[in-house]
Write a structure and sequence with these properties.
single chain; Rossmann fold; 7-stranded mixed sheet; 11% strand; AB_hydrolase_fold; signal
Length: 340
């Protein structure tokens, strides 16, 4: 597979957005079967205190590629959500979210059902990077959780993938979920054609135009990977100016991210309120409420993810789609060949 030139890749992303009319979302009676044993899914769900089935005000944290839930959020949204009065819980699909993202989504479905049943209330969800994409996949294809998710606060989600992922496959460094996050993949095509590129629950998306992992992000429009239709989409530079430099990890950990996330989690609408954050909050350093050690750890988040990615499993092609998603990506190629 050759490296995709940036301009050509951008055309691919545009085609993902505009090529095919969206189909209607799967109906509530159409939940597909879960393929991973529940005992395995349960082992991937942890909470800061107590059993996941006995949380009173849980919030679900979903990590990005290359990290566990603990690695992703211990330096940021575990303490920050606790400060807001939540009981943080997180999933850690092994290994480090590098597996098939369809399987990663099953951990999300199980976690939502478990936390909802234990608390008796809808569950807010906070995500980073692939976590946002996996949650949107779960909401799209597992309708039973739609009424159990209170809101989605997604930091640097890659709903449309990234043109950068092709570099990893070129050099033989792509795990299963990395193949799926390449712009124009069968996985992303299925999400788009199933109606998954629009808001399903109240959603806030926060991202940076200079993100070095997820691109394109610079148009402040539906072309951007993190942009979701009918949602609260916040491109940092639109508010803070083009000189505001925040990287992929900073989109999760920065002071500006804290202000937007706090607004989204506290609002009556379920989405961030523009009047509750602004240019005065344009600080790229780690969120002010964090301890000195947490701020230091937040600064090394990408190094942890990179190390796990380099040491993790690699594959030579995109994983096959589950039977329930195949009809949304006919003509696309996966490991078993062209989807018919």
């Amino acid at each position: 597979m050759k490296t995709i030139p940036f301009v050509s890749a951008l055309i691919v992303v545009l085609s993902v957005v505009t090529a095919t009319p969206l189909l209607s979302l799967p109906r509530p009676s159409s939940d597909p079967p879960i393929t991973t044993p529940k005992s395995v899914l349960d082992r991937g769900l942890e909470c800061q205190t107590g059993s996941p089935s006995r949380q009173t005000r849980p919030i679900l944290l979903v990590p990005g590629t290359g990290v566990t839930g603990q690695q992703s959020f211990a330096s940021n949204w575990i303490p920050l959500s606790t400060l807001l009065g939540y009981s943080p819980c997180w999933i850690s699909p092994p290994p480090f979210m590098l597996n098939d993202s369809q399987i990663n989504s099953e951990y999300i479905v199980n976690a939502v059902h478990t936390l909802y049943s234990g608390s008796g209330g809808k569950v807010p969800v906070v995500t980073w990077s692939q976590g946002g994409l996996a949650v949107q996949w779960a909401l799209t294809f597992f309708p039973s959780i739609r009424g159990k998710v209170d809101r989605l606060m997604a930091f640097a989600p890659d709903y449309k993938g990234t043109v950068e992922a092709g570099l990893l496959s070129t050099f033989g460094l792509a795990a299963e979920s990395v193949w799926q996050q390449q712009a124009g993949s069968a996985f992303l095509t299925a999400l788009k054609n199933a109606g998954g590129l629009t808001r399903i629950v109240p959603t806030t998306n926060l991202y940076s135009s200079v993100d070095e992992i997820v691109q394109p992000q610079f148009t402040n429009s539906p072309v951007d990977s993190s942009y979701l239709d009918n949602s609260m989409n916040v491109q940092m530079q639109q508010i803070c100016g083009g000189g505001f430099i925040v990287d992929h990890a900073g989109s999760l950990t920065s002071q500006f991210s804290w202000m937007v996330g706090r607004s989204a989690l506290g609002s009556k609408t379920g989405e961030a309120v523009s009047g509750e954050f602004g240019k005065q909050d344009c600080n790229a350093t780690a969120a002010e409420p964090l301890s000195a050690q947490q701020k230091s750890d937040a600064g090394g988040l990408l190094l942890v993810a990179a190390g796990n990615l380099l040491g993790g499993p690699k594959v030579k092609c995109e994983p096959d789609l589950m039977e329930y998603a195949r009809k949304y990506a006919t003509g696309m190629k996966t490991c078993s060949g062209v989807i018919m």
